[in-house]
Amino acid sequence: MPPQPVPASESSGTDPAKRVLPPNPRAAAIVALAFTALLYLVELVDVVLPADLDQSGGIVAREVSDLDGVLWAPLLHAGWGHLFSNTVPVLVFAFLAMSAGIGRWVLVTAIIWVLSGLGVWLIAPGGTVTVGASGVAFGWLAFLLVRGIFNRAVGQILVAVVLLGIWSGMLWGLLPGDTGISWQGHLFGALSGVFAAWLMARADRSRARKATGPGSLAG
């Protein structure tokens, strides 16, 4: 049986799971900017109408009728100041989290989005309304901090060290503090990011084992 062609990523020794930067930086930047622009558009609509979206679309703890807030809350913010504080982390973390491709980023983001929202819905104080993209941002940060450990990727670990050095102050947001800040969203966002990194690493290892199995050998 003639030798089979080797994929470019394998022949060059590059493992997509261990990339530090997105394979298509321009496309990743456009996606990150588009997502951030959507946040600003939603806030603008809320201010101009005014539509009171914060109250109607946020997560209200343990209210079954408001469970759909899990889907909408990350798109809403309690004013421009709240949105401004989330902008840079959202842009940077979203871009770097696309290192395995935009499709993988969508899956990771969906895991963080839903699980962090459900965590808030379960344990936030009754009667409170939670909005903001900070839970998702914490999820992306946690994903970036631990993926290198799961992937055994030195480059990703170095990036994690840099991110930790710049945004270490964010970690205080995981603890109860200011009553106006949802530490529940931050905590469950971070836990969801770790879970997403573990799932992705596990899937990559499973795929690698299948690719190097007996059936993949040329003969």
Compile the SSE list and pairings.
Blueprint lengths: L7 H4 L13 H24 L4 H5 L1 E2 L8 H4 L7 H17 L5 H22 L5 E2 L3 H18 L2 H14 L15 H29 L8
Tell me what you see in this structure.
The chain is mostly helical and 219 residues long. It has one domain (21-207): Up-down Bundle (Rhomboid-like fold), CATH 1.20.1540.10. It contains 9 helices and 2 strands, in the order αααβαααβααα. It has a two-stranded antiparallel sheet. Helix 5 (80-96) packs parallel to helix 7 and helix 6 (102-123) packs across helix 7.
What labels would you give this structure?
219 residues; mainly alpha; Rhomboid-like fold; two-stranded antiparallel sheet; 9 helices; globular
H-E string: HHHEHHHEHHH
Mean pLDDT, all residues: 88
CATH topology: Rhomboid-like fold
The number of helices is 9
Number of domains: 1
Organism: Amycolatopsis keratiniphila
Keywords: Hydrolase, Membrane, Protease, Transmembrane, Transmembrane helix
Main location: membrane
Protein name: Peptidase S54 rhomboid domain-containing protein
Précis, in short:
Residues 1-20 are annotated as: Disordered. The protein has 219 residues and is mostly helical.
